Amino acid sequence: MPAGRTVPVHPIELPPGHPRYGTGVETIDDVGEFGLIARVLARLPLTDPDTLVPSGDDAAVLAIPDGRLVTSTDLLLEGRHFRRDWSSARDVGHKAAAQNFSDIAAMGGVPTALLLALVLPGDLPVAWVEEFAEGVAAECAPLGAVVAGGDMVRGELITISVTVFGTLEGRPPVLRSGARPGDAVCVAGRLGWSAAGLELLAAGIGGGDEASVGGTMADFLLAHRRPRPPYAAGPEAARAGATAMLDVSDGLLADLEHIAAASEVAVDIESASVPTAEGLRLDQVLTGGEDHALVATFGPATPIPAGWRRIGVVGEIGAGAPGVTVDGKPWDGPGGFSHFGPRE
Amino acid sequence: MPAGRTVPVHPIELPPGHPRYGTGVETIDDVGEFGLIARVLARLPLTDPDTLVPSGDDAAVLAIPDGRLVTSTDLLLEGRHFRRDWSSARDVGHKAAAQNFSDIAAMGGVPTALLLALVLPGDLPVAWVEEFAEGVAAECAPLGAVVAGGDMVRGELITISVTVFGTLEGRPPVLRSGARPGDAVCVAGRLGWSAAGLELLAAGIGGGDEASVGGTMADFLLAHRRPRPPYAAGPEAARAGATAMLDVSDGLLADLEHIAAASEVAVDIESASVPTAEGLRLDQVLTGGEDHALVATFGPATPIPAGWRRIGVVGEIGAGAPGVTVDGKPWDGPGGFSHFGPRE
């Protein structure tokens, strides 16, 4: 299964006193299913020249001029991947689209469309769903992506399922398995910002009160709420001849393990080269997820494209299994994350 | 949004004393995320000649030889669309795939692949997920469809999000909007069987005890648990020149309203012509959902293809709005369903 899961440093839990949904405002129950669908559709980009049959029939029909479809799917759960008191509905809409589109970019592709399936409590304010749709639309807009279909069902907790499509524009896909000893390991985008923002929120800083924090702290909060994947860097890396690529959803080191395993190589990261920012700790940069940076490897003779930064090197597998090291040593700080297994 | 929602005659509710998940058996928490993924993947068809990059990288890459993609998405929630004491995990797997593939057939398409995103409680037995996967695989097998990707996340209640793909094999899609006055209204597949099965289960008959019921009652229970959409009838209708088509997920009359509205026509159903079976009431046949029969309209000069049965006629819009009548009169029995709005 595509491994583009988001990984909070602190798993989000709803506090015991978390308020129920809207009271005294217009709720989903008030407007009914068809009213809600109409309100959501009015806010989404539903068609483009490749949309042969838009949402509204039994299924949509999309033109696929490249003859190949890049696709991935992800789930976001309230209380697990977002909290409504930490992120606005618009933030959640941005994030739901971004974390999925990032998987397309990580193949060297360009996002073209998404499908959106929502579980929604009947007492959720309609405004939340409208603003969520506006966030999705705003993330789609600069990419020209459309919402090609969806489903909405009543349930207890907001659950968002996004399936994304993209095109390779004639290029071969960039897999995780193509890294070779001697390749440069490079990154595009930010690392650790989202994790730092989540830590601030978990510490009670910045929840709904942007004015109370400033400078980089406000940037970290924003980065957690609305990740900004470097979409264009994916196709650029593909054009430049990247040998392997993925998006950093679970943390740099954890995700590089996938390249190491799939390519049967070792990877060493030079900690001094990894992009950081004032206020970030090294463990946040190396293990924080959800920024959706892209990591790619390039052959030793390949010029590293603009927007990419060299942070390490691919090596032969040593005595042990394929693996990832930092400055030549195993990383012994925090890292890794599992959705199941004994509670983190 | 594609309207392929399933519609129980009785909305399913978990009883207050509904048992929690497994105790004393191997649970998801016991095997962890990667263990679970491996166990699920081992049971799914993951690749075919059109699978250029299978599940396992950031995204899958599928060849789309037709140059057009048919796609739709649907959600199933435990307690809303199924109960684990009424349906086996294998039943739920069959149903999750079938209700979505049916939307592809309803466009005249052939299902090719699906993506599967699951919310799973940590204390759910691993065997449930394995058997669910086997049900999905068994529904895919005769179609040659593959599972091209997925996601699994821990949550409180089993939630299944399925996105399906299909191909039109060079044919134009059959929309809801093409019915014309004089067209024959035809059905392929069963009507009312699933609703009858659900009524039996709601009445406490047949829950996990197949031997206690026989004959058509057992068939109705099976029809509810594992709908059998007439997949081949969709492309056959398209080849024969169907003017409009959809799948009956919400009930014959409710779904025909979509054709009537999209085509701006009236539809009259001859109740004596509608296929039924011993033990079915007319209201079950006309308003029961979830069998995923296909309904299509054919021009007056078009021979009705094998496997299709004429049940009514398309007419001009009369004095009122477009609409559906039975034997020339509005249907005044039960029908209709909304996912939101005051609780059904």
From TrEMBL, chains A, B:
Positions that bind Mg(2+) 1: T73, D74, D151
Region span, Disordered: 1-20, 325-344
Pathway where this protein functions: Cofactor biosynthesis; thiamine diphosphate biosynthesis; thiamine diphosphate from thiamine phosphate: step 1/1
EC number: 2.7.4.16
Binding site residues for Mg(2+) 4: D58, S72, D103
Residues that, per the record, bind substrate: H81, E290, F337
Keywords: ATP-binding, Kinase, Magnesium, Metal-binding, Nucleotide-binding, Thiamine biosynthesis, Transferase
Binding site for Mg(2+) 5: D250
Top EC category: transferase
Residue ranges constituting the PurM-like C-terminal domain according to the UniProt record: 180-283
InterPro entries attached to this UniProt entry: PurM-like_C_dom, PurM-like_C_sf, PurM-like_N, PurM-like_N_sf, ThiL-like
Other remarks in the entry: Reaction mechanism of ThiL seems to utilize a direct, inline transfer of the gamma-phosphate of ATP to TMP rather than a phosphorylated enzyme intermediate.
PANTHER family, sorted: THIAMINE-MONOPHOSPHATE KINASE
Function: Catalyzes the ATP-dependent phosphorylation of thiamine-monophosphate (TMP) to form thiamine-pyrophosphate (TPP), the active form of vitamin B1.
Protein name: Thiamine-monophosphate kinase
